Amino acid sequence: MANNQNSVKETVLEIDLGALTQNYHFLKSKLKSETKFLAVVKAFAYGSDSKQVALRLQEEGVDYFAVAYTQEGVQLRDAGITKPILVLHALTGSFETILNRCLEPALYSFKILKEFIAFTELHQQTSYPVHLKFNTGLNRLGFDESDVDNVVELCKKSAAVKVRSAFSHLAASEDLSEITFTLSQIERFQKISNHLISGLGYHPILHTLNTSGILNFPNAQFDMVRSGIGLYGYGNDPKFDSFLKPIATLKTIISQIHELKKGETLGYNRAFKASTPMKTATLPLGHADGISRIYGNGKGWVLIHGEKAPIVGNVCMDMIMVDVTKIDCKEGDEVVVLGPNSRADTLAASANTISYELITGLSQRIKRVYK
Q: Among this protein's residues, is 156 annotated catalytic?
């Protein structure tokens, strides 16, 4: 793909599949050879392209995929993904689709566990793989430690299901000031796992580490790890920036350049007022593309010829305006919004949010191109 200035003629999201492969192997290098790797590709693979990402990772030998909701798993099956797919937030209305597309549900409450067992029994299933989620402190979804005996009883009573894995979710593995809490979660999960294995009479796959868990707590690998944000180039800590490369670069062009006189205003609600004569550039992307209205008015920037151009005024639905007073540029020039040299975590921090929110919000109307 051409990378010369002016090569882009519209707003595009370039997906670097080579960087994806590099990130995957870096994370794998932190693991024991026998530890399985689950790739989290929910939310369009964190705003990139779940189909292309999953196909590449399947080629690279990933063991499992995870999505949030059933329809995301269906899209992967339609794309040719044959590896097991875990649905992290299975809902009763999706059971038939889960069964028809050979997806594997996470069961996190007695209601959902009983309903799925009844469903699989009705459809005469045998040993259908299910995953049990346990709450060790995130307090979002999951069975409690005190539920293990009753969970085991329900699972053993029915031949329709078999526990494929048991897992939990760390609450603050990226925050080293919370080491004590994270270690307590890991210890609690180990205790739950021992109890579960003893009751079931077999050893399901155990997993609790997310990306930051892999990087900060590698001794708690259990049988599998889960990575989402790390695959896409972000390690939640600057010390990993040289090892993980953002796979998505958001580019656009300058649609028009305006000269503002001192005192003139710009954009909706006249939110910006020029204090001196200045030059602005209008770009063809806005909050409908994922550049939220939290940016602008002193928050956020883009790169034009490698120089920062601050976002000014209110972000519009389909356009943003940037200050190019000190940048030598013209209409049609290429603009980099996000990428390896304009990282989503840095841009998000300027507006007091996180990289996850920024990259997963990138609209599907943005054209995807691949490197």
A: no
